[in-house]
Amino acid sequence: MSSNDVYAVIMAGGSGTRFWPMSRSARPKQLVRIIGDDTMIQATVARLQPLISPDRVLVITTAALAEETRKQLPMLKPEHVIAEPVGRDTAACVALAALVVEKMSPGAIMILLPADQVIRPADQFQQALAAGVEVARQGNLVTYGITPRFPATGYGYIKLAQRLGDVQGVTVNKVLGFVEKPDEATAKKYLSDGGYRWNSGIFTWKAEVVLDGLETHCAWLTEALRPVAEAWGTPSFATVLNDVYQPLKKISIDYALMEKATNICVVTADFHWDDVGSWDSLYDHLPKDADGVITQGDVLTQNCRDSLIVSQTKQIITAIGVDNLSVVVTADAILIVPKGRSQQVKHVVDTLKAKGRGELL
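The structure assignment produced for this chain is given below.
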């Protein structure tokens, strides 16, 4: 496909609390090397190439993370790392990005994707994106659905409507609706039904189409952000962005648009996808020994099974008879949690925050 009018917008403002204590507010999981030699945001940019060159990649992040993000992504134009002064949820992020893309290249298409997912192989990912771009050229809002591999309760789901056919060898359906994270029994029903896909959180659309949709269903947002687009490329951009963003209400793109729009299509993606939302999810991605033990750093284990032990300190960590645990040791914190319960790490972070332990966050 011709990709000269296609831009990628990476959302990179998350805090990654479920990966505490490795992920901190000043260096969340997308800026950390969790899998492989690259940080997650570096891997996200790399897998877009050569489909989308770095000069057409933008990152929406926070003011606190912008400097480190630019440092990790020297191939991007510095001004393409846009710092939201405050978090206002995903609808504001989408509208901001679409306004900027449309200002830079009227009629352009934008691919919106998170910074902290594990996706492989890159060629299948790009094939799905290319198919989504072609569907988006017809004026559709496109999302990417992953065929469920197990009855996941930590993902949202997309309910499929009629099949529209294949585009570049990839199946495309209309979307009947979006479903919140289900309980286990419901997830099992979705899996056996076959008419559902995991919601990858990746989207493709013409910038003007998503802006038209937001103007129809959430007009106050696009109206508020118009001055930011006008200021793009001028010395006043950061000031205007701050003035406009501060009073905005928080609203997600799901509530603002996706649950109301009728021109939504889903591309069923064949690539392996994982949003790597917790320590438990790493077990599918890191090498294990014969007993199912994963170690990182200076770690010595004896008679351990099915565990993850990570050390970021100079001290040796020794474990004897550990079974089904995740153990993460940093310079100032130690996490010990049974496998299957690492989603609860977020509650620890919330408790530390309530206790005023900001030095650990």
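Interim note for the steering committee: Residues 94 and 242 are 16 Å apart (CA to CA). The radius of gyration is 21 Å.
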